[in-house]
């Protein structure tokens, strides 16, 4: 039986100093240790805090950035950021479905950046063969319908319409003036109602309605003028004077170059493309903001001088009055649609031909003549010459109608 010896009282515990962590051994020394000792040293090495960053240990050994070269400071050499273009400068679009291009800095009056559109610009690559085929079909249908429903005395109502107007007076001058006024009221009135009406029935439907009413009235007015142009009181006779025929011919020829550029948009006229209210700026618009009015005045004056009777005077009064109102109404509609952009265009264009160019408000570009070397103006040249030589055919066709 063992005897338990009493335990000797232990000495009081003294605080021991904090153990210091030895530096990690070199890799060769760690590999030479036994496996348990090697694992212990590796654990101590992995648990050690990461070394301080290099820039804290050796702050003065980092290379300094090179000093800037002598010369103007960077702030002075840096160009100021370009100012944004005004929002009123609109993309340039070609007539007939051309591609838009965004304006660039420095664009302005007479330059590529226009508040209006580039008139009479026709690019063959932008055209669709299917659209022009559709236009040809629509044109044929319109001509057939116009003949059957209006021109033909047996089936159309044009003769009855003209008889109703002629019943007001036996005077050819009065009838001529009434026909012009009726056409002007319908044409300008429907143009005034265009914006509000298009919101109700759409652009294409309103264009069909507009053309369906205006075209028969225009045909009646033209045919009546051809048939009765020499029935009035003769006021003067200058047809035998040398040079008058050439002056009248040249004036009439020039007047067709003042057609409003929207006339060239045949696909929009026929509603193949969606009709738009365009604001043109190049080409003939640099000469006058209302070329259709100017061209009509030139044509009326030339034919009135040549014919020299009261019927020609009545027709000219009606047509010129209609186009003067159209100029005012056109500016009003463009201002309502385009706002500030139209005010800019209005300041650098004029109604009186060449007025803005003479007083310096319109700056013509160096290649201004190229704005007329375009397909629409080539077509106008051919059609105007053709219409002159076709005058006998046109007159014979008009004489066949009892209008």
Class from secondary-structure proportions: mainly alpha
**What does the overall shape look like?**
globular
Low-confidence stretches: 1-6, 10-14, 27-48, 54-60, 72-77, 82-111
Distance between the termini: 157 Å
Radius of gyration: 43 Å
Q: Give helix and strand order, one letter per element, not per position.
A: HHHHHHHHHHHHHHHHH
Give a count of the beta strands, DSSP E runs of length 2 or more.
0
Oligomer description: single chain
Integer average pLDDT: 81
List keywords for this structure.
mainly alpha; disordered N terminus; globular; 0% strand; 403 residues; single chain
Topology, element by element:
Elements (H helix, E strand, L loop, with lengths): L26 H6 L2 H13 L6 H4 L16 H4 L51 H23 L6 H9 L5 H21 L1 H8 L1 H26 L15 H12 L10 H4 L21 H17 L2 H29 L1 H8 L7 H4 L16 H15 L1 H9 L4
Helix pairs in contact: 7-9, 7-13, 8-9, 10-12, 12-13, 13-14
Summary, kept brief:
Residues 1-87 are annotated as: Disordered. The chain is mainly alpha-helical and 403 residues long.
Written account of the structure:
The chain has 403 residues and is mainly α. The chain has a domain of 273 residues. It is built from 17 helices and no strands. The longest helix has 29 residues.
């Amino acid at each position: 039986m063992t005897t338990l010896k009493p335990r000797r009282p232990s000495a009081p515990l003294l605080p021991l100093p904090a153990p210091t962590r030895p530096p990690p051994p070199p890799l060769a020394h760690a590999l030479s240790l036994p496996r348990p000792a090697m694992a212990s040293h590796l654990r101590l090495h992995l648990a050690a805090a990461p070394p301080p960053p290099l820039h804290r240990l050796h702050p003065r050994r980092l290379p300094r950035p090179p000093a800037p070269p002598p010369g103007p400071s960077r702030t002075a050499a840096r160009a100021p950021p370009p100012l944004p273009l005004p929002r009123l400068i609109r993309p340039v679009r070609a007539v007939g479905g051309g591609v838009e291009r965004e304006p660039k800095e420095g664009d302005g009056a007479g330059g590529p950046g226009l508040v209006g559109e580039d008139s009479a610009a026709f690019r063959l690559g932008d055209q669709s063969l299917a659209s022009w085929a559709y236009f040809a079909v629509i044109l044929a249908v319109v001509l057939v319908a116009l003949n059957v429903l209006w021109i033909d005395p047996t089936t159309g109502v044009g003769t009855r319409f003209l008889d109703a107007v002629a019943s007001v007076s036996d005077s050819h001058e009065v009838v001529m003036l009434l026909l012009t006024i009726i056409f002007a009221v319908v044409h300008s009135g429907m143009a005034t109602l265009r914006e509000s009406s298009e919101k109700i029935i759409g652009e294409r439907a309103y264009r069909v309605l507009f053309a369906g009413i205006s075209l028969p009235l225009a045909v009646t007015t033209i045919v009546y003028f051809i048939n009765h142009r020499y029935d009035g009181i003769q006021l003067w006779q200058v047809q035998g004077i040398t040079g008058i025929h050439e002056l009248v011919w040249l004036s009439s020829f020039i007047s067709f170059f003042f057609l409003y550029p929207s006339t060239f948009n045949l696909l929009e006229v026929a509603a193949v493309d969606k009709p738009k209210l365009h604001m043109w700026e190049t080409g003939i618009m640099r000469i006058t903001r209302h070329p259709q009015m100017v061209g009509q005045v030139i044509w009326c004056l030339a034919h009135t001088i040549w014919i020299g009777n009261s019927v020609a005077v009545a027709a000219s009064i009606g047509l010129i009055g209609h186009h003067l109102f159209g100029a005012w109404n056109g500016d009003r509609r463009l201002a309502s649609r385009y706002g500030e952009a139209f005010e800019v265009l209005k300041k650098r264009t004029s109604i009186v031909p060449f007025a803005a160019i003479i007083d310096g408000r319109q700056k013509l570009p160096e290649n201004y003549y190229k704005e007329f070397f375009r397909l629409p103006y080539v077509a106008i040249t051919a059609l105007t010459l053709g219409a002159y030589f076709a005058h006998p055919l046109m007159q014979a066709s008009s004489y066949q109608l009892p209008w």
